Amino acid sequence: MTDTYKLVIGGQLVDAASEETFDSIDPSTGKAFAAVAKGSPEDARKAAEAARKAFDEGPWPKMKGRERAAALLKVADLVKQNAGPLAELEAKDAGHTIRMAKGADIGMVISTFRVFAEIAAKENDEEPLARNPGSMNYVRYEPVGVCVGITPWNFPIQMAAWKIAPAVAAGNTVVIKPATYTPLTTLEIGRLCLEAGIPEGVVNVVAGSGVAVGEELVGSPLVDKVAFTGSTEVGRRIMELASSNIKKCTLELGGKSASVVLDDVDLDYAVDGAMWGVFFHNGQVCSAGTRLLVQRPILDEFLAELTKRTEGIRVGPALDPASDEGPIVSETQLETVERYVGIGRDEGADVLTGGERAVVEGHEGGFYYRPTILGNVKSGMRVAQEEIFGPVLVVIPFEEEADAVAMANDSIYGLAGGVWSSDNGRAVKVAEQIRTGTVWINDYHMINPRYPFGGYKQSGIGREHGEMGFNEYRQVKHIHVDLGGPSRARHPWWDLTVPKRKEPSAPSPETPGSKPSG
Ligand code: NAD
């Protein structure tokens, strides 16, 4: 008997309109363990209508920031109270090791809701503008409207929080479409939002395929904004569909980030750091440091130690607290990883360790792969340019810092990167030349909901997190209150009350910068 998870639409937990379900597979075993209501375009339309109604007629957009903040804090509390079951669900649905699910995922979800509660409570909805003679001017920040959040399979519960928290904190309503492989914890977060008292229709979750549910939502005239996290390829399609009614778009897309190791580094520290940068969650991380650029004088020693420690990583079932790495999310993604390692071999790379499936006793149906290091790689090879999204590191030596910067920037992507050095000044000089949205120095994956995160180049548009992320969910309205008497005094050339037109006089000197314009 499997559990059945329902959609969240208009404040209710509902079956799909078709009453169909699909299986959720546990990647640790390869077996179905839950059934999920299978959303269709009809369910997507119902969710968009519910979100539209809640935005146009409901109390949420009109509430004060501090009132919305109280509801967000309640969601954070409920996530905390349900931390154990949510972490286990993420481990089963998405293959997150239970250590990571408890230690990283749940904490990030709680802090995301808390940080956006704090921002919503303190942000002003109105701000005066510089004084202008003859008028009072100010900006008003208003919610954008109905926002659609589409999320990938790698960090389902975190991505749900990243999309829901800033959107609702700013007074919007949302429809979330989680990835088909990993919908369960997002449906649970949707349910907890209802339990926290967020009004009906403000948070909706529709599981289903990208083409059926995702395209219906992104193309919908009822929707004002799309926040998408996923591959660059699908990001392109999102932009096309969103152009139908000129929706605002934020896109968090793929990456092929470089970790640059300078020759003055503390080797012990940097080897661990490089492993953390790439093998955290099996490399299924958009910002993973999958290209390791090592300065030539320390290359051999660094690689020997890196290979030795990588061979000590324990691959096993997600729910086993002894597992350092769980399974890959799906059979299809496992095949993609295998295919890329084959491409690397064909291109002339050496497999220094890994390069094959891992066998986990008692879990033979699971999707396991050994952490893999490819040496003898050149920057132009496909394995050094294309996102693999698995536990595969390519290592490339460099001579001078300038060569490392050039190679780090030799990518269509620009999401993140790292620099490892004992000299912060030297590391900062390199970091400032890398064209990516984030660079970590002497650490990696330090994403914080207070600081902006997003990509340059084909890694995306816009930023998530912090006030910048919050403002992606707000419109800016300029209000001009005229204090200068009848408008004809300032626009004599447009004086309709005078029967006979006069010659235009010189523009009034008192109102610089306030000329009508189109
Ligand atoms: P994906 O692009 O295949 O799917 C992402 C989401 O889009 C899923 O919910 C999917 O169902 C949906 N989708 C697919 N086709 C669609 C369509 N035509 N219209 C609307 N929606 C559609 O990505 P994935 O395989 O789930 O995740 C891996 C990718 O996500 C990687 O490229 C990774 O780098 C990226 N990612 C980026 C970030 C970031 O913050 N930049 C974070 C996590 C993952």
Q: What do these coordinates show?
A:
The protein is of the alpha/beta class and 518 residues long. It is built from 15 helices and 23 strands. The strands form 6 sheets. It has a 7-stranded mixed sheet, sandwiched between helices. The protein has a 6-stranded mixed sheet with strand order 10-9-8-11-12-22, with helices on both faces. A 3-stranded mixed sheet has the order 1-5-4, with helices on one face. Helix 2 (65-81) crosses helix 6. The radius of gyration is 26 Å and the shape is globular. Residues 509-513 have low confidence and may be disordered. Residues 150-154, 177, 179-180, 210-211, 214-215, 218, 229-231, 234, 237-238, 252-255, 286, 387, 389, 415, 455, 460 line the site of nicotinamide-adenine-dinucleotide (NAD). The site of nicotinamide-adenine-dinucleotide has 29 residues, from helix 7 and helix 8.
Please summarize what this structure is.
By secondary structure, the chain is α/β, with parallel strands linked by helices.
Which stretches are low in confidence, meaning pLDDT under 50 for 5 or more residues running? 509-513
Question: Strand arrangement, largest sheet?
Answer: 15-16-17-14-13-19-20
How much helix is in the residues?
25-40%
The coarse overall form would be: globular
Count the beta strands.
23
Query: What proportion strand?
Result: 15-25%
Euclidean distance between termini CA atoms: 64 Å
Question: What characterizes the major β-sheet?
Answer: 7 strands, mixed
Mean pLDDT: 95
Computed CA radius of gyration, to the nearest angstrom: 26 Å
Count every helix, treating DSSP H or I runs of 4 or more residues as helices. Answer: 15
- Distinct compounds present: nicotinamide-adenine-dinucleotide
The helix/strand class is: alpha/beta
